[in-house]
UniProtKB/TrEMBL annotation:
Name this polypeptide is given: Evolutionarily conserved signaling intermediate in Toll pathway, mitochondrial
Record's keyword annotation contains Mitochondrion: yes
InterPro entries (alphabetical): ECIST_C (IPR029342), ECSIT (IPR010418), ECSIT_N (IPR046448)
Record key words, sorted: Cytoplasm, Immunity, Innate immunity, Mitochondrion, Nucleus, Transit peptide
Family membership: Belongs to the ECSIT family.
Length: 319
């Protein structure tokens, strides 16, 4: 379509701004919204030399504002899609709008900031992202579980569990610290399967679930600042102060709202696949799950599933 438009009118190319805006609107439907060559071809539609300012007033008052704003919007769409321009685009903009044009200023800002942010993320993703939801789930779980460097990513199959309804994959993450926290849990207190939560990998959302138990209330020593009954004078206190007790530093999994014991993403995000996940965790070094009641509090459902000690599934109404 670009070649047809250019060859139809070699000199004036009337309607070039409307043509560029129409092309920008339909680029994603054609799958070329991340192709820098297509953006350069759209910029090359504009005639050369006609929009270059000749004095300082034309420079500051945006000579040919409609055409300049059109190319600024094109560069803005490139920035939104993460497309870094190249040096050939600088020559195109310089031949069309001159070295003082606003689009070239926008190009220089993009070339300064975008390469800095390109590799700034500590969780780099493959480019382009895979279309397979299984590969996306593995990338998402690895990103979340990287809070603990000892976390192990394991892929289970729900069909390996007897009486399983769903036939799907389960990407699970658990560290040795989380296994220790789970094995130290009181069997009389329930643990919860919560979700689904959403994590974004660029433009793709991935749903994941967590296995959580209630947080322990930390003992806080409250010091009365107005109490002057036992004042310590530093000048005559020759012995260094000695702590009466030591506090255990909590791990990264022990948060104020709960202790994260494991997390996963499944192919169907159903209750049956999560039940298979619990059974796999039970076989994979967590035998305490046979005695601990597990409560499923899922956002998508209207009822909670409770697993008791006798391995029976009961339905409990959500209040």
């Amino acid at each position: 379509m670009i070649h047809i438009f250019v060859n139809r009118d070699h000199v004036y190319r009337r309607g070039h701004v409307e043509f560029i805006y129409s092309a920008l609107k339909n680029m994603e439907s054609f799958g070329v919204h991340k192709d820098v060559e297509v953006y350069k071809a759209l910029i090359d539609v504009l005639p050369k030399g006609k929009f270059i300012p000749t004095n300082m007033f034309q420079v500051e008052f945006m000579h040919y504002p409609k055409q300049q704003q059109c190319i600024i919007d094109l560069l803005e769409q490139m920035e939104d899609n993460g497309v870094i321009p190249d040096y050939e685009m600088e020559d195109l903009l310089s031949n069309i709008f001159g070295r003082k044009g606003f689009p070239l200023r926008k190009y220089w800002r993009m070339m300064y900031w975008m390469p800095k942010f390109k590799n700034a993320s500590p969780w780099p993703l493959p480019n382009p992202l895979p279309d397979d939801i299984f590969e996306l789930a593995k990338c998402a779980i690895q990103r979340i579980a990287s809070a603990d460097v000892q976390s192990q990513i394991t892929v289970y199959q729900s069909k390996e569990i007897e009486d399983s309804i769903d036939d799907t994959w389960i990407v699970s993450a658990q560290s040795p610290t989380q296994k220790r926290l789970l094995n130290e849990h009181n069997v009389k207190e329930p643990i919860y399967v919560e979700g689904s939560f959403k994590v974004w990998l660029k433009n793709y959302p991935v749903n994941y679930f967590i296995l959580r138990k209630n947080a322990k209330l930390a003992e806080m020593d409250v010091e009365d600042l107005d109490d002057v009954s036992n004042i310590k004078v530093p000048l005559f206190n020759f012995k260094p102060p000695v702590k009466k007790f030591l506090k255990k530093v909590p791990s990264v999994h022990e948060q104020e709202d709960g202790v994260i014991l494991a997390l996963c993403a499944t192919g169907t995000s159903s209750k049956d696949s999560l039940l298979s996940w619990i059974r796999h965790l039970q076989k994979d070094g967590n035998p305490i799950l046979t005695d601990v009641p597990v409560v499923f509090t899922l956002k998508s459902g209207v009822r909670d599933l409770v697993l008791g000690d006798n391995e029976e599934t009961k339905s409990v109404e959500v209040k």
